[in-house]
């Protein structure tokens, strides 16, 4: 069958049509392939972007860093990751440490295993995306770093989709694309327009560049945080500013896209943004705000390098921190003041410590003015002149009143007002203080010209008494003192005032005790010929004790040497010392031997304890020690006894020094044990050294070491007592003695045979006359003719009584010293008694005559009996001193 020409021509047309159809089909197939490939590419990119977005959002989520620090991070991160994964529409969110060990995974059994993927770029701080064969199959995943506040990578977060999910999404798009292709075969232009419109609907009218930019911005900015975020490009334009940044920097609404230096922000902030340099927690002032800025370089939209900036408002926190720091410093100052002020019971030193503590932490200069009586420990009176007791400052060339100045403040000055009312006075501006200027116009002008501009005058008030005024001066800091400073000054001075008043009270008691003790100690040692004496006494720095010494002349040219120590310090100890010293004087007048004298002294101390008259303030048992020695220059014998006291030292004429082995005996007041006596024969020129424990005992050494140093200092021949005293004090005297020190050095002398006459008296009354004649002849030889008659009367009575009432043998001895002493010795212990005879009595007048003729008379007992003695004053022209 042959085609008609029309058919053939249609065929051509058909062929053309077929060709056109083929071309259209080919174009449609190519377009279909291109659309499918483009769709899959877009979906793949969208999957990658979604993975990056989800991973970065989770990496910056609140609580993530705290969870990483927990002992078991998976317990918190696994449920959080799964919940986020389901909400974000991704197949997995994996949190891992920097070694790639998982903390979370959709398959819990994978937790703790190593992550499948490349983590090195993310460990360097970059975002990395890749396709890998993972536990869920072929996966598209993004790995982002989790950084600490200082920028270090502390963990990694990975999020992504499986290829199966991505392919499923692409397949879901084919039913939409195929009808469009079918329509394109009918009308390509219409189909193309429909596809374009559909794409525009799906992308909300945005192109690919705009969508990429949107994702980058959302990745960089978290609008939910209370931090300002800025992004700039390399040309200095502001690409992004979130709401918080606009509020903190007062940016206009159209700031984005404009140059940074044209949006009206603070110049320092603009300079920082334009510099592009790295900034970490840099503090900038922007108006009335204090901002903490962090800046890091970035590449927004692939453009030249820009910066990402975060801003925090720390104004309120800085204010609170500043107040807290100020409060801490003030509490530290008060704490230090409690430990540094009042370390000694010295008024001046306490004032200096107060000035030292306050400079420079509170004031630039501090002056302490005390009422003049307070310095001496007395009560301050109204209107008392002020003594500048302490001055301290950061410079020494200030024009303030100098140390030691006596100042009479006018009533108009803040110092006088504070002293009078007890209230703290604040002068914010010294230039505008006419009352203060009136005190000393020239000096006050110099102070203002020097730069001192503010003053706080705080009275030292303790126990209702104002002791003085502390002046705090400000020079270096431009701000004046304020009310907070006023409170601190009041608290600081209040604490110091208690220590000051304690020091004042102690000073007063110390002065009273020193005065009392010095009044009770011997002012001038009595004249005697038995020893040459050097002595020294120094009270303790912390308080007067009860140390004492004494030199007591005894009949027969003898001398008693006494050193004692009452335990304790203060008025009680000094008063007790005075009572004991008086008792020793009274007992020595009875001419008791040393052991018996100490026994009676021990009884007295026990009685004082029983009567509650203790030296201890709490009424405790009184403690005291004593050493009593009697030296006879005729026999050169020294008899000693001690009650718990330090042993004496004996220095021979050749310098050999020994510590006496005198038995110690119990301290006074214990009772129940006898005291032992030791007798030494001392060569002429020997030195007997008595002392208290304050000389040899010290915290830095024990008593044995102190005794050895004392022995070494004394071991030199040919010294007189004064030289020995100086050597001892140079070697042993502490700079600040903690106990009283008493030292008594006695160099022995002898009463030569030319001044001593003695005879044995026959036990016969008829021999009395012969003995009178011998005595008269001896007195004429000594040139004491004026005393012959009175001496004969005395000897007649004394010898007669010894023969009549005593026992043989009887001895007579005359001693020519500072007085003429007549001594009659016998073996009886019966002592005669003075009585007044009646007019008709035949006897009883002898001792009365002796008492009338002599200056003193008395009886002393010896181991062999007794001695009755009488002393007469030498005539002025017959006095022969040794």
TrEMBL record:
Sequence ranges assigned to domain PPM-type phosphatase in this UniProt record: 531-748
Record keywords: ATP-binding, Cell membrane, Hydrolase, Kinase, Membrane, Nucleotide-binding, Phosphoprotein, Transferase, Transmembrane, Transmembrane helix, Two-component regulatory system
Major localization class: membrane
Span of domain GAF: 336-510
SUPFAM superfamilies: ATPase domain of HSP90 chaperone/DNA topoisomerase II/histidine kinase, GAF domain-like, PP2C-like, PYP-like sensor domain (PAS domain), Sensory domain-like
Transmembrane segment boundaries: 12-37
Cell compartment(s), UniProt: Cell membrane
Membrane topology: Multi-pass membrane protein
PAS domain segment(s): 216-282
Protein name, entry field: SpoIIE family protein phosphatase
Organism: Streptomyces cyaneofuscatus
Organism lineage: Bacteria, Bacillati, Actinomycetota, Actinomycetes, Kitasatosporales
């Amino acid at each position: 069958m042959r085609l008609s020409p029309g058919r053939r021509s249609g065929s051509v047309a058909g062929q053309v049509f077929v060709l056109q159809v083929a071309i259209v089909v080919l174009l449609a197939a190519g377009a279909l392939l291109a659309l499918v490939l483009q769709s899959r590419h877009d979906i793949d990119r969208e999957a990658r972007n979604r993975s990056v977005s989800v991973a970065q959002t989770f990496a910056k989520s609140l609580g993530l860093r705290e969870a990483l620090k927990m002992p078991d991070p998976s317990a918190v991160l696994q449920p959080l990751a799964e919940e986020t994964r389901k909400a974000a529409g991704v197949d997995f969110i994996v949190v891992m440490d920097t070694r790639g060990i998982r903390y979370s995974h959709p398959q819990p059994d994978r937790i703790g295993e190593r992550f499948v993927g490349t983590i090195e770029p993310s460990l360097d701080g970059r975002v990395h995306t890749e396709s890998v064969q993972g536990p869920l199959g072929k996966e598209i995943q993004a790995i982002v770093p989790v950084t600490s506040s200082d920028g270090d990578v502390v963990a990694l977060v990975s999020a992504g989709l499986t290829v199966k999910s991505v392919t499923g999404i692409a397949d879901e798009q084919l039913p939409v694309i195929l009808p469009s292709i079918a329509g394109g075969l009918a009308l390509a232009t219409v189909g193309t327009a429909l596809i374009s419109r559909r794409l525009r609907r799906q992308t909300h009218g945005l192109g690919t560049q705009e969508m990429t930019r949107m994702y980058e911005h959302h990745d960089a900015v978290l609008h939910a945080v209370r931090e300002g975020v800025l992004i700039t490009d390399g040309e200095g334009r502001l690409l992004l500013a979130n709401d918080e940044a606009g509020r903190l920097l007062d940016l206009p609404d159209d700031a984005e896209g404009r140059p940074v230096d044209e949006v009206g922000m603070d110049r320092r902030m603009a300079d920082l943004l334009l510099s592009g340099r790295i900034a970490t927690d840099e503090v900038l002032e922007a108006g009335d705000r204090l901002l903490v800025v962090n800046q890091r370089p970035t590449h927004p939209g692939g453009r030249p390098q820009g910066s990402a900036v975060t801003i925090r408002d720390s104004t309120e926190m800085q204010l609170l921190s500043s107040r807290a720091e100020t409060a801490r410093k003030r509490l530290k100052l008060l704490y230090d003041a409690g430990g540094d002020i009042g370390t000694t019971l010295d008024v001046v030193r306490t004032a200096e410590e107060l000035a030292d503590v306050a400079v420079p932490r509170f004031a630039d200069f501090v002056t302490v003015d005390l009422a003049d009586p307070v310095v001496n420990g007395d009560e301050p009176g109204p209107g008392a002149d002020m003594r500048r007791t302490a001055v301290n400052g950061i410079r020494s060339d200030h024009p303030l009143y100098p140390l030691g100045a006596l100042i009479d403040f006018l009533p108009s000055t803040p110092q006088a007002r504070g002293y009078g009312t007890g209230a703290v006075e604040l002068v914010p501006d010294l230039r505008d203080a006419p009352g203060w200027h009136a005190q000393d116009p020239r000096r006050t002008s110099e102070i203002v010209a020097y730069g001192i501009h503010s003053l706080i005058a705080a009275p030292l008030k303790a126990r209702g008494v104002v002791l003085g005024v502390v002046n705090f001066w400000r020079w270096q800091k431009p701000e004046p003192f304020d009310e907070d400073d006023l409170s601190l000054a009041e608290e600081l001075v209040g604490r110091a005032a208690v220590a000051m008043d304690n020091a004042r009270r102690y000073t007063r008691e110390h002065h009273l005790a020193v005065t009392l003790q010095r009044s009770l100690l011997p002012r001038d040692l009595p004249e005697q010929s038995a020893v040459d004496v050097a002595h020294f006494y120094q009270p303790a720095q912390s308080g007067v004790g009860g140390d004492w010494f004494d030199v007591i002349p005894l009949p027969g040219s003898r001398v008693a040497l006494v050193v004692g120590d009452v335990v304790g310090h203060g008025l009680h100890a000094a008063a007790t010392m005075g009572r004991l010293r008086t008792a020793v004087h009274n007992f020595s007048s009875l001419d008791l031997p040393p052991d018996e004298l100490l026994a009676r002294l021990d009884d007295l101390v026990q009685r004082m304890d029983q009567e509650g008259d203790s030296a201890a303030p709490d009424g405790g048992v009184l403690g005291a020690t004593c050493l009593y020695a009697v030296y006879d220059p005729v026999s050169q014998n020294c008899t000693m006894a001690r009650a718990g006291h330090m042993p004496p030292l004996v220095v021979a004429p050749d310098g050999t020094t020994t510590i006496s082995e005198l038995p110690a005996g119990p301290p006074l007041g214990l009772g129940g044990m006898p005291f032992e006596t030791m007798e030494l024969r001392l060569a002429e020129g020997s030195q007997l050294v008595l002392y208290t424990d304050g000389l040899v005992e010290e915290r830095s050494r024990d008593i044995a070491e102190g005794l050895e140093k004392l022995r070494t200092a004394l071991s030199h021949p040919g010294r007189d007592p004064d030289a020995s005293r100086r050597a001892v004090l140079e070697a042993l005297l502490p700079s600040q003695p903690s106990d009283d020190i008493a030292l008594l050095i006695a160099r022995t002398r002898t009463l030569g045979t030319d001044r001593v006459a003695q005879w044995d008296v026959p036990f016969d009354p008829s021999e009395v006359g012969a003995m009178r004649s011998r005595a008269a002849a001896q007195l004429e030889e000594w040139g004491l003719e004026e005393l012959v008659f009175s001496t004969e009367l005395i000897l007649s009575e004394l010898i007669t009584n010894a023969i009549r009432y005593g026992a043989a043998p009887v001895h007579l001895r005359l001693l020519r010293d500072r007085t003429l002493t007549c001594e009659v010795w016998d073996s009886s212990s019966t002592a005669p008694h003075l009585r007044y005879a009646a007019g008709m009595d035949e006897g009883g007048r002898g001792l009365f005559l002796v008492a009338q003729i002599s200056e003193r008379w008395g009886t002393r007992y010896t181991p062999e009996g007794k001695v009755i003695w009488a002393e007469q004053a030498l005539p002025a022209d017959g006095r022969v001193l040794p």
